[in-house]
């Protein structure tokens, strides 16, 4: 009888373990009690708070587009979720803040957000006021035109003297200005589409993946020239000189490259339109 009782207890325990395992996936959030961080670090503060504020775009298909529930969706959003998870923070405890090109550095500097994941090109000018982890993706600036490319645009040289739309405060704005265009700027790339439709501008320019998302969202209206003329490494912006936090995020990215979470994040978002790229090496400057 004692043996039967013991076997029954073991069976019950095994059933409980299997039931628990069935509820667990590789994407589950790390339990806050299972991770510890050195006192005084940003990671420790965020883990203790149980929440993180992430700045991202709300108007960019494939990378950061506001969904029907008010929360953004896209590759940048999934990268933010991976980082939060490694801090022991569930996606329900992420506060998403719309962050446009012109306010990314100010939002980091004044503490409005903890990090920015928002098609954010790493460059030396920005590194004067903030720090970057990554890159986690390599884009390239390209050109969006009306379907059929009626003006025969093949590259930025063809846009000299023409009206071109881009976003104020972006690297795309600075890059295209070197080609002698008449630059029309706005706060978001989606606001460039109507001027392109009605002929007020001849083209829109920014990173190829952003343009691909806009074209996909408006089938039959636009096309990407598909001739990138810059290299745009996307990084995660954070408070300047927070080297410990930057190293932590870089570690998370490399782990996500190795275990498939980065690829899963791509395939479920941008990968619905674009091929899976190779993940870039992080820059531990």
Topology:
Blueprint: H1 2-22, H2 42-49, E1 52-56, E2 59-60, E3 64-66, E4 72-73, H3 75-86, E5 94-98, H4 104-109, E6 115-116, E7 130-139, E8 141-146, E9 163-167, H5 171-177, E10 182-186, H6 193-197, E11 203-207, H7 208-217, E12 222-224, E13 232-239, H8 243-259, H9 261-267
Parallel strand pairs: 1-5, 1-6, 9-10, 9-11
Antiparallel strand pairs: 2-3, 3-4, 7-13, 8-11, 8-12
Helix pairs in contact: 3-8, 3-9
In brief:
With 285 residues, this protein is of the alpha/beta class. It is built from nine helices and 13 strands.
Q: Taking Cα atoms only, what radius of gyration do you get, to the nearest Å?
A: 22 Å
Query: Count of helical segments?
Result: 9
Question: What percent of residues are in strands?
Answer: 15-25%
The CA-CA distance between the termini, in Å, is 67 Å
Mean pLDDT: 90
Which architecture of the largest domain per CATH? 3-Layer(aba) Sandwich
Provide the CATH superfamily of the largest domain: Periplasmic binding protein-like II
* Class from secondary-structure proportions: alpha/beta
Low-confidence stretches: 1-27
CATH top-level class of the largest domain: Alpha Beta
How many individual β-strands?
A: 13
Shape annotation: elongated
Fraction of residues in helix: 25-40%
Which oligomerization state do the chains in this entry correspond to? single chain
Side by side, the strands of the main sheet go 10-9-11-8-12
Total domain units:
2
The sequence of SSEs as H and E is HHEEEEHEHEEEEHEHEHEEHH
**Largest sheet, if any?**
5 strands, mixed
């Amino acid at each position: 009888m004692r043996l039967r009782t013991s076997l029954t207890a073991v069976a019950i325990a095994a059933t409980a373990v299997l039931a628990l395992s069935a509820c667990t996936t590789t994407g589950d959030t790390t339990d806050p009690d299972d991770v510890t961080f050195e006192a005084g670090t940003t990671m420790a503060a965020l883990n203790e708070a149980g929440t993180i504020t992430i700045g991202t775009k709300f108007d960019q298909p494939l990378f950061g587009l506001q969904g029907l529930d008010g929360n953004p969706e896209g590759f940048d959003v999934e990268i933010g979720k991976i980082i939060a998870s490694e801090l022991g923070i569930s996606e329900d405890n992420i506060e998403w803040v719309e962050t446009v090109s012109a306010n990314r550095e100010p939002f980091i500097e004044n503490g409005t957000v903890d990090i920015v994941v928002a098609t954010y090109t790493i460059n030396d000018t920005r590194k004067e006021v903030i720090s970057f982890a990554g890159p986690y993706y390599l884009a390239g600036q390209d050109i969006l035109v009306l379907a059929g490319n009626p003006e025969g645009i093949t590259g930025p040289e063809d846009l000299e003297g023409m009206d071109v739309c881009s976003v104020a405060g972006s690297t795309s704005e600075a890059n295209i200005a070197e080609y002698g265009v008449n630059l029309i700027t706005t706060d978001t790339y989606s606001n460039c589409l109507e001027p392109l439709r009605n002929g007020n501008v001849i083209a829109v320019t920014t990173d190829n993946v952003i343009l691909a998302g806009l074209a996909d969202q408006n089938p039959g209206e636009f096309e990407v020239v598909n001739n990138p003329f810059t290299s745009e490494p996307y990084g995660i912006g954070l408070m300047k000189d927070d080297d410990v936090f930057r190293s932590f995020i870089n570690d998370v990215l490399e782990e996500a490259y190795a275990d498939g979470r980065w690829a899963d994040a791509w395939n479920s978002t941008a990968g619905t339109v674009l091929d899976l790229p190779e993940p870039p090496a992080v820059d531990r400057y």
